[in-house]
Amino acid sequence: MEIIGEITSIIYRNEVNSYTIAELETNEEITTVVGYLPFINVGDSLKLEGKFVEYKDYGRQFKVDTFEKIMPQTTEALKRYLANGNIKGIGEAIAKRIIDKFGEETIHVFRYEPSRLAEIRGISKEGAKEMSASFIENWEVWQIVGFLERFGIGAEYAKKVYDLLGINAIEQIESNPYILIDLAKGVDFKQIDKMALDLGVSYDNEKRVTSGIKYGLIRSTYNGNTCVIKENLIEFVINLLDVSTENIENGLIKLNNNKEIVIEKRENIEYIYLFNFYNTEEQIALRIKKLQNAKNVKKISNIEEFLEKIEKNSSIELSDKQKNALKMVNDNNVTIITGGPGTGKTTIIKNIIDIYEENGKIIGYAYANTFKDRAAYDWAVEMTIYMDKDSRHKGSGKKLYETLEKELKKQNITNLYACIGYPEVEDEYLTKNSVGYHEHLGYRFVGEFKKCGYKFNRWYNMVWMEKSLCDRPEHPEPMIWFSKLRKKAAKRQEPQ
């Protein structure tokens, strides 16, 4: 059943899940409507699908299954819509002036003649542009909300979809629903696939098959894999999509030709990688090989003495595994330290720094890591810095960060993020100095998570801080791998 009307009041709203109880005025009556209605405000005109339900305690209510925001049907309704805070820069007084001036032409003016808004007292030419842009964006986002709601995809993704795909987002999604997999975090492939099939996509559609292959490769990373044996991948995709092996083989050829995947044969077994994973793994392998083959690496001959000194100075007793790990670092050019939370990785790293700092080598380090392993976030990195306590407040940390930022700019990185432990009350283990330090370096505070980190038998808060290296270009240049920068630098140094 379908009803159309205007929201006249909101009785209740759950801010977490957007479950809403509101009053809707139709041509016939005022109806109580209940359901999940995110971002709904008084004055909004809605088209609702659902059914009437009789409740013992609350009486007759309309239970909403799906909804769509529509243009107000009267100038009075449009005035209320403009006045309810939907449009940037418009309040009740300005809304009245707009309606009094343009009447039934109001929507046309917002869409096609925004400069005419400046004819109204209190609206500048720049303000008119902003109001028009806000009106159009608001409306387009809501069209996307209604479209995604049909397929069970939350409204929280609508703004993101609009920002990335623009005003023809719905047409692009209808043409290829599988683009939503990269845009909507947490949306399951099967959910998108059902949506695509409902829109008329055939089972053996090339876009469906290639998306299923990529989903299979991404899913394998949940188990720590960067590649999948071809036969296993084909079996997974057959069960997922109910398509033929031939369809999948053709999809693999397509993705390989487009350099979206890499097919590598080792000992008569074919392994399938997502291109980014393969490239990353290759760069890591090359770097490790280079480090392994490095010469003139100074070893500490009296490592046992340093281990004893560490235990004495820090009043801790190293376990046998920790001692062995420190010895391995000293004996090998490359050592990988791994382990779960609380296993002592940080302790080992700090001890390594203490040892080599005393030998005139390391006083601290700074590095940038992947912020989020998706293509959309290629221009963002997470920053980390550690300085030996005796080397702090001497400017070395700032030099490290400045040098790192210089290299990141060369890589076309735009966004820097720092995740920092933050105590509600400072203690012997953790202070708020790091936040102040990052503010000094140009970072800004963007968010705080309460009691999300546990160490030293107590809970700590965590904060995120952000720094922009440059203005965001409309079309950023691709991120450049550091290895390529090194090759370019080496080439410039070659004799001409």
Structure description:
- It contains 18 helices and 13 strands.
- The chain is of the alpha+beta class and 496 residues long.
- The chain folds into 4 domains: 2-147, OB fold (Dihydrolipoamide Acetyltransferase, E2P) (Beta Barrel); 158-276, Arc Repressor Mutant, subunit A; 303-362; 366-492, Aminopeptidase (3-Layer(aba) Sandwich), CATH 3.40.630.30.
- The strands form 3 sheets. Strands 1-2-3-5-4 form a 5-stranded mixed β-barrel. The protein has a 5-stranded mixed sheet with strand order 9-10-11-13-12, covered by helices on one side.
- Strand 4 (45-55) and strand 5 (59-70) form a beta hairpin.
- Helix 4 (125-149) packs across helix 5 and helix 9 packs across helix 10.
Number of domains: 4
CATH topology type of the largest domain: OB fold (Dihydrolipoamide Acetyltransferase, E2P)
**Strand count, sense and closure of the main sheet?**
5 strands, mixed, barrel
| C-alpha Rg (nearest Å) | 29 Å
Distance between the termini: 79 Å
| Oligomeric form | single chain
Content of β-strand: 15-25%
Low-pLDDT residue spans:
none
| CATH class placement of the largest domain | Mainly Beta
Major sheet strand order: 1-2-3-5-4
What is the number of strand segments? 13
The general outline is globular
Tell me roughly what share of residues is in helical segments: 40-55%
* Corresponding CATH architecture of the largest domain: Beta Barrel
Specify the structural class. alpha+beta
User: What is the average of the pLDDT values?
Assistant: 83
Count of helical stretches: 18
